[in-house]
Specification:
Elements (H helix, E strand, L loop, with lengths): L12 E7 L7 H4 L1 H14 L3 E7 L3 E7 L7 H16 L5 H5 L2 E3 L1
Helix pairs in contact: 2-3
Amino acid sequence: MSNYRRSVIPGGTWFFTVNLQNRQSDLLIRHIERLRAATIFTKRKKPFLIQAWVILPEHMHCIWTLPEGDSDYSGRWRDIKKNVLPRFGDTPGLAAAFLGTCDP
């Protein structure tokens, strides 16, 4: 299990790069609607502001601002991944390909 050093600033703005395990994959652009649906679902439960989001075939960059008093960006990423993976259950290999790294 990864042991990331995380800064905890409630209400902060964060830059992320998230990679697929398979850097040769184009999963993110082929299944962008699944990622979008998982993000919308997560935002309804745990609001955050998306300042910017760039999605490339095998990785993405984004800038989020969390609500005042909230610093749980890792929980939001966990929920996005958790919610996107069941949507990949009907496609062999896609769930494993989505599990990547989160570099805050």
